Amino acid sequence: MNTPAESLPSSPKPVPADPAASLAARLRSHYADRITGELFIPTQSGQYRPLPAGLDPRLTAALHRRGITRLYTHQAAAWASVQAGQQTVIVTPTASGKTLCYNLPVLQAALQKQAKALYLFPTKALAQDQVAELTALNQAGALGVRAFTFDGDTPGDARKAVRNRGDIVVSNPDMLHQGILPHHTKWAQFFESLGYVVIDEMHSYRGVFGSHVANVLRRLQRICRFYGSDPLFILCSATIANPAELAAELIGKEVTAITESGAPQGAKHLLLWNPPVVNPDLGIRASARSQTTHITKQAVKSGLKSIVFAQSRLMVEVLTKYLKDAFDRDPRHPARVAAYRGGYLPSERRAMEKRLREGRLDCVVSTSALELGVDIGSLDLCVLNGYPGTIAGTWQRLGRAGRRQRTAVGVLVASSLPLDQYIIRNPDFFLGASPEQARIDPDQLLILLEHIRCAAFELPFLQGEAFGKEALGEILAYLQEQGILHHEGAQWHWMADSYPANNVSLRSVAEGNFLVIDTTAGARTVIAEVDYSSAPMTLYAGAIYMIQSLPYQVERLDWEGRKAFVTRTRADYYTDAIDYTRLKILEDFAQDKQPKHAVAQGEVHLVRRIAGYKKIRYYSHENVGYGKINLPDQEMHTTAVWWQINPEALEAVFPTRQQSLDGFLGAGYALHIIAAMRLLSEPRDIGRAVGDGHAKWFATVGASGRGQLRNPEDEAMDPAQLAHFTPTLFLYDNYPGGIGLSAPLYEKRAAILADAQRLVSACDCAHGCPSCIGPILASDEVRGYSPKRVALRVLSLLADHES
Amino acid sequence: MSLKTRLASLQAQTGGGCDSPVPASADLRQRLARIRTQRLSSQSTVTCAPISEAELARRLNGRQIAEGVIHLHRRVPLTGSLSKVPLACLREPARLPGEDQSDGLRQVYIDTETTGLSGGSGTLAFLVGMAVVEDEAVVLSQLLLTRFSGEAALLSAFSMALSPLDRLVSYNGKSYDLPLLMTRFRMQALSPPFAALSHLDLLHPTRRLFARRWPDCRLLTLEERLLGFRRVNDLPGAEAPAAWFDYLRHGRGDKLIQVVKHNRQDILSLVAAHSAVAQAIKQPEAFDVDLVGLARWLAETDEPRARELLLSDADRLCNAGKRLLGHLARRAGDWPLAVGLWEGLAASGCTHSIERLAKYHEHVSKDLAMAKHYCEQLPRNAVQGQRLKRLNEKLCNQAIQQQTIKAQHT
Q1: What is the distance between the alpha carbons of residues A686 and A680, in angstroms, rounded to a whole number?
Q2: Structure confidence at residue A170 (pLDDT)
Q3: How many structural domains compose chain B?
Q4: Do domains A57-258 and A266-432 have the same CATH topology?
């Protein structure tokens, strides 16, 4: 990343021998019917500026020794902005030398003013890369600037040295939150002379994590004020639509954005790929998995280093298995294919990164875990198995393939999921659109409250002080009532025998990772860690849990103890959990009552039950059995938007309640697709459900393909037997307390409904398909009515604004 | 919903990262109601009238020296005794191994009570107790905080009480009390008075002498085992934070008064413990001291005494003691003693001793065959491999030499 700009020759045009270019050509000629869109980004040459005049001569010398005699334009612009005292965010592609953008001003200030700097990376691994790089520059110029990592792995006896002698301390938000801020007095010297705070990979601070981090930064700035310092923030981000806005929300100050990269770039070829239709009647396409495997196999055979991104850990394991079946049959040879995802132990991940960097792996299959700037060297091909859900996320992943001197190829393979199908059939949506905005909600009440507790522990709150946008006084009074704070004179003091930061995890709202323990042959080895939120869907008793494509069966889940005991198995199937969601309306924040329908936004209480799981055989993907899951219900309190149709209007349009129920389920499916797109959020950030709003019943698509009512005991109910029947369609914010998604959803309700109607009516399936109202079964032809038509009818009632 | 209600309901759902899932059936509002009534009922138990700062000072027989700070002063004459320990023995300043007998420093005993055990900037010391021995008495002084705003005054008073010619004596103060006080001085933007003072943390000598004799080395255990008494009606230290909070919140002082007593007892025990530890070093047998621990400590400054001590009990020494004695014997050049100890240990499989013997026979006794014999018993690793190779070479050379000599003779 710290690229010596001078050492780069301007990239030559792709020559015919360019293996990636010829792969792209081959795919285009053989599979023209599967490619729905393409984009060619030609080679870009670098744009340069001389080294800044004010640069410390020692630093200039160090750069020269590293072969850097001039800067890229964005590096020069960053320098100028920071020297002018502006909070600065730099948005540039991977491998464009962005680290120099912050290392130069930081090193300059360390040399000339003994100013200290704090670097924050979202993960420990990135921090370690960064220190290695700083050390190299430091040694090249014998600068004497000391950079240290400070994280959970820093041994106790080294910590004091880091605090007292570090000029640059490289850490992560979690450590700042739990290890540094609550002990700020030990860091007094450091904070007194803190000149810069560097936040790299800023785009990863969005959603819940970003909202937490914004609060940690509020706390950091509060501590800095106490020690009389006012550090300047330098942030770096991959491409998102609103870098300056996100940066401003994170640090609570105006930020200048630098978005034009001056770094050279090799050509890039991007193909949008839709699997061929295998059953035209039902609109069923070949699986994305089969296409991804096919493309990747060709690439690896032609000697291209490849990376495959999958949407879930499960899919990573499945794809790895298929590719290993092709390339790693002989156990005597070192593996050519590997899986990389969260849940592996850190040491395992480090080893894999190293093998990738050194070119000893030909193909890696990963979840978004590799999307971040972990240094894995350059690759030739990137295949996305399924649309990652956001445009920004897609470009970040595609950015993993990129060479300076030759072409890189990216292929986006659409799955049958509706969002994928929408994107792939409307290539302009993706190719022409700007990337999404990253949203955070630092004032989400639960998150804010937790950080106010932490902040009160760090320093007493003063009357009239502000922290976030909610009324601080009221929150402090609440915490006093809870017996945590004590109001005395003009101050609020922490008054509890506890250490609040230990109970707040930045990565989630719920607590506690699960350990996966292998008990095969009487052993007890921890082989993985799974976060709280995904544990119920992956670690139930009977589940097949895969690690590097080796299947393990979960024998027992100790929910309280947060442990899953597994043994090696030879099962030829994998498992997929089935969940049901019930919602109860607690309170309206806003309501829009129309003659035929009502829309509201407010708070809901949600109970999710993981009822059972399906066993799915490899390769054939047929369902070979069911199992029951006995887990506590997952509860959540969040915000939602819900739609209801008044009973008379409903009865006037639908001859039976069954039909209207099917209509609601189909309409909900379509609205969910559109809402995710309109809010530019990850689809999983939003949940959907159809119920009565009192948690008395909820609806689900049964094995018959038709809507079914179920009571809280999970027993089927007949809609015709109900005294009152007011189906309610919910789209909810899928995080405890909500992260601010339901308010914009409510504001955009008219546009979302109009889009959903357009989506369903323009879809060229006959009665419904995964691209509009959800999958339907072949037998639906004989249902007597079209599921697609009833869904449209519900949508038009919900869109009705006249009489 | 008001901000407050929203907060309460959110917290009930997920707050504090509740460890076990909430029962599914409970209605949110009902749960909230339950939480509220619990809080009300706990508040309604306030029966006694809150007592004022002045009243608290009076009941403690102390003096309000600043807003929010009560100073307590006590003289305990050296005529009495603290259980087994006659206080008269405190006239002689206690000196531990390695300490300069003539540094002339005044010993200031110190112990704090704090608002929590987890450390960090949100924990403060609400009670600082100190003691010095002078003019035929233990002079105790305690600074009690009665509100947050008095902290700067308390810390200043503490600073004033110390001089550069003091030495601090504490129990676990190096890792607990002093870092915490350092934090408090920084929080109040005051300079800490103890940065340059020497500091004896009695926990460390106590561990050296008794860690293998006692179940633990808490001050309470020390009192029982070394000073020979057990506290009655003592408020456990862990309840101190709640006692202080209770006074601040509701003006209830009973528990806080008990904490003050508890702290006074801690300090007196600390003074007595210092003397008792010094005594135990003089008469280790009488106090059931772990001789090996003591010898290891003595060895840092006085090897002959350490050796003597171990030899006095040579028959009953544990393996660690034998190893230490072997080490001391080697340093003193007493090879027969050292080798005897190592051979005994080697027989029971002690690698360290086998290695020692291998070295001894290679370099001192020059009995290469024995050296090889021991070397072969060592775990296989690079060092061992090298040693064995070297020994084999030496043996080979020796054989050649002997043959040459023989040949010359014949």
Answers
A1: 11
A2: 94
A3: 2
A4: yes
Model confidence at B141: pLDDT above 90: yes
Distance separating alpha carbons of residues A328 and A666, to the nearest angstrom = 44
| Domain edge (last residue) among B282, B315, B335 | B282
Structural domain containing residue B84 = 53-95+104-282
* Out of A446, A478, A635, closest to residue B22 by CB: A635
Q: Do B13 and A488 touch (CB under 8 A)?
A: no
Please give the pLDDT value at position A768: 77
Which secondary structure element, helix H or strand E, spans residue A199, and what is its range? Answer: strand A194-199
Q: What is the fold of A57-258?
A: Rossmann fold (3.40.50)
The C-alpha atoms of residue A457 and residue A92 are separated, in whole angstroms, by 38
ipTM associated with this complex:
0.80
> Distance between CA B161 and CA B141 in Å, rounded?
9
Residues 6+ positions from A620 with CB-CB distance below 8 Å: none
Which of A163, A177, A180, A185 has the highest number of chain B CBs within 10 A, making it the mutation to test binding with B? A185
Mark whether B314 and B222 lie in a shared domain.
no
Angle, alpha carbons B173-B160-B80 (nearest 5°): 65
Choose the closest CB to B6 out of A445, A497, A636: A445
Residues 737-776 of A with CB under 8 A from B: 737
Q: Is the pTM of this model over 0.80?
A: no
- Using one digit for the tens of pLDDT, what is the confidence trace for B89-132? 777 777 787 777 667 788 999 999 999 888 899 999 999 999 99
Contact A702, A718 (CB under 8 A): no
Closest-CA residue of B relative to A494 is B122
Reported as a single tens digit per residue, the pLDDT across A162-213 is: 998 999 999 999 999 999 999 999 999 999 999 999 999 898 887 778 889 9
Asked whether residue B33 carries a pLDDT value surpassing 50, the answer given is no
Does the pLDDT at position B404 exceed 60? yes
**Which of A219-228, A448-457, B115-124 is most confident?**
A219-228
Distance (Å, rounded) from C-alpha A216 to C-alpha A177?
6
If one compares B354 and A285, the residue with the highest pLDDT of the two is: B354
Q: What is the DSSP string of B126-174?
A: EEEEEEEEETTEEEEEEEEE-SGGGHHHHHHHHHHH--TTEEEEESSTT
Domain ranges of chain A: 57-258, 266-432, 445-503, 514-571, 578-799
The answer to whether residue B186 neighbours chain A at the CB level (below 8 Å) is yes
Contact by Cβ (8 Å): A503, A511 = yes
């300056």: which residue's tokens? A244
Q: Are residues B272 and B303 in the same domain?
A: no
Closest alpha carbon to A336 in A361, A304, A301, A359 = A361
Chain B hits for A470, Cβ within 8 Å: 3
- Measure the CA–CA gap between A122 and B308, rounded to whole angstroms: 59
Q: Cβ distance A150 to A162 under 8 Å?
A: yes
Confidence class of residue A89 from pLDDT cuts 50, 70 and 90?
Answer: very high
Residue that the structure tokens 């002690």 belong to: B350
Q: Using CA of residue A357, residue A360, residue A363, residue A368, what is the dihedral sign?
A: negative
CA B23 – CA B37 distance, rounded (Å)? 19
CATH classification code of A266-432: 3.40.50.300
Query: CA nearest A173: which of A531, A501, A469?
Result: A501
Strand partners, B130: B110, B141
CA distance A793 to A670: 13
Choose among A380, A410, A415: nearest CA to A397: A410
A395, A238 Cβ separation under 8 angstroms = yes
- Residue B193 and residue B108 in contact, taking contact as beta carbons nearer than 8 Å: no
Is there a domain that residue B1 lies in?
A: no
Same domain, B205 and B269: yes
